[in-house]
From TrEMBL:
Keywords: Signal. This is DUF2796 domain-containing protein. Residues 1-19 form the signal peptide. Residues 20-61 are annotated as: Disordered. Residues 20-41 have a biased composition (Basic and acidic residues).
Amino acid sequence: MKPKQLILLALLGTPLAFAEEKHDHDHDKETKEEHAEHDHDHEDEDEHEHAKKGPNGGHLVESKAGFTLEVVVDKERKARVVFLDKDKKAAVALEAQTITGSAGERSAPVRLAFAKGKDADANVLISDKALPEGAHVPVILVIKTTADAKAVTERFELHLH
């Protein structure tokens, strides 16, 4: 081979030669128990990073504006939003909070308006329309905590499986 070809091969093969070094442990030397524990650790990380659950099993939205929401989807695929207390354990009473938004793909979003529920749902804002089909639904909510408060926009994806 010509020297230029050898240099080219060496440069192309270098990333592959070092790729295995980035992996932080050797699966061949790992026992089955260690491997199972390792996999379990990743599952826990994924749970915490991707889907924080609220007290009703719904999606938690922790706003930078200082409030926390829980979004639950009912069997009719309507979004049910509850404002939570500082401990993220219980619903707070609805006063002047309002929410509008959209769900689904940008090309065909479902526009949502939320109304206060009745009786047992007095502290719940319920969407007027069902969420679009799919297991992963992008949602944008525009939230006002009081009539004269600045609107806060929250974007997230609901995982409905």
